[in-house]
Every structure is written in C-alpha cells, then in structure tokens.
Fold:
Amino acid sequence: MNFEDINAVKELLSQPQKIVIIPHKNPDGDAIGSTLGLWFYLTSKGQEAHIIVPNDFPKFLKWMPGQEEILNFERHNSQAKEKLQAATLVFTLDFNHLGRTGQMEPLLEALQVPFVMIDHHQKPEDYAAITYSDVRMSSTCEMVYNFIEYLGDKETITPEIAKCLYTGIMTDTGSFKYSSTTSRTHRIIASLIDSGANNTKIHNQVFDTNTPSRLHILGCALKNMVILQEYHTAYITLSQEELDTFDYKKGDTEGIVNYGLTLDGIQFAVIFIENKEEGIIKISFRSEGEFSVNEFARAHFQGGGHNNAAGGKSDVPLAETVRAFLGHLEDYKELLSN
Ligand code: 5GP
Ligand code: MN
Structure:
C-alpha cells in the first residue's frame, strides 16, 4: 500500500462510517478470516461495521470468533440489503472483480460510496477508490495484518483478530507450505501466536473435523481420479448423484483437488463438481511449478485466481465439460511437459 492510499484510508476512518465488509461467494478460510479480522479491528476503532457474505460458508469455519455476527445475503436478504443501502464505505476482501460476489453484484455496482479492495489475486479490476492488491501475498489475511500495521495499530491486535488472521493464512498457504509462504509470513504468524492465536487448537478446529459424508466423498473422488501421465495431469469428477448418495454438505469437497499433485510426475490437478441447483460444473485447478492455472481458467472456464490455484465453471453437462477440458489439454501438452 502506498503512502497516499494509507493516508486516504486514515482520512476515511477519522470520520464515523457505516462500513460493510464483503468476501467472495463460497467464502473459504482466508475470505472469512480476513473479513472477521478486519471487522474486529474496525469495530475496536469505534466504527459501525457489518459483514455480508454472498452465501453460506463451511461448517469447519463456524467456530471462528465473531462468525455469528455475519449476515448471509441469501438467508438475511432484507437486512443485508438495508446495511448495503446505508453503507458509507465498503471493503471487499479476497477477490478483485464484483462478479465474484454472485447475486450481490448489481447492488454493489449501484452503490455510490468509496470501496477499499484488499486482495491477492491476479488482474484486479478498477472498481475501488483504494486498491490494495498484491499477488505476491500468501493470503488476504496477511494483507489485513499489513493494513493494520500501516495504520499504526499493530500493537492493538486482539486475540480475536489474531485467531481470524492466523486461520486464513494457514488455510491459504496449505499450512505454510505453498511457495507464497515467506519468512515474513512466518514472522506474522509468530506475532499472531504471541497475540493469542492458539496454533494447535486452530489447526484441529479446521482440519480435524471430518464427517462421514466428507470421508465418503473423498473416497469416491479418489476412486474417480483419472491420471493422464502423458499430460502430467490428474483430474477428478464428482457428479450431483454421487454427492447426493454420500449426503454432501458445503465444504465437503474442500482440498480434494490437491491429492492429484501428490502423485509423482503430476503437475496439473483438476476437480469438476456438478452443481445441479446452479446448473453449472464448478471447477478447481491446481498446479506445481510454472504452469499457470490462472491463465488456463481464464482462457477456457470463465475463472481465474493465482498461478498455482484457480477456479472456474462450465455451463455444459459434466461429461461434455470433461471432453472440452481434454480437448484444451492437447494444446498445453508442451507446456505441461516442462
Ligand atoms: P478454489 O478452487 O479453492 O475454489 O479456488 C482457488 C482460487 O481461485 C481461490 O483463490 C479462489 O478465490 C479463486 N477462484 C475460485 N473460483 C473462481 C472463479 O470462478 N473465478 C475467479 N476469478 N477466481 C476463482
Ligand atoms: Mn485468499
């Protein structure tokens, strides 16, 4: 964040504001952790702030401090709209184009108040008065930590803020192992532990919460995995029927895509998940090394994200989506054999 933007934020926060904080649709640990961390910070500064999530978030995050305050745009629609209409300042976290908020997009586009974007995805759009965008960052939670530091309030980080930010850094870095994890990430993590984040407890609350449905779906997914050695690629499909058979609940498929990358020689892993209700196939892409799944998702599946982790979707049936994917793979054969 440059000086000008820091001063502009300071100026905005020197007045009482009605703030709304928004993460992306299908919010993950980083999205929920960063919005809650920022919410605790802003309310501790005496600001009125509300979090609105476009839709529900997984059960493994429902222990987080402050989570009961979150408004769900689907479930608390009129209340959420009311807060949006009254807002004088909007923070958007962990995404960089308004389409990522799903049904909230038209309402956000119509708002005539300043937006502040804090995000680490590629190619930010130009909707915010203040854009704090940095693709080198491990997570939006790391950026919220920086944000608080830039405003001179690092010493005021409470145990609640620490727990929220710790959680998002942990989930977005695959527990501190992805290449976006820097020595500074670890220093921030150390300071969050000092401020009251209990690392072992948080890890257990997020990862040791398996349910029968989650494990059965994982089993089904691994059985369905197709390995294409010549493309250094592994992909998984999960049909709506399979999800229903195993009593799918939100969050059950989180992280499954990563299994493909644990195979020797596999650089590109994909999961296709059928969602009959939305009439789409939701896709997650992961890679190791140079191959940019952000580019791949942008070029072929209406998505984007980071170099090594991205998402997208398809509007045609599952089998057809996979066929299209296989067709595209041929064009990347050379890139994938590097
Ligand atoms: P996941 O596969 O875990 O849902 O998402 C991986 C990364 O890609 C995350 O950083 C997520 O925010 C981003 N992402 C997921 N789905 C989409 C999408 O449909 N569009 C864009 N632009 N990014 C996505
Ligand atoms: Mn993130």
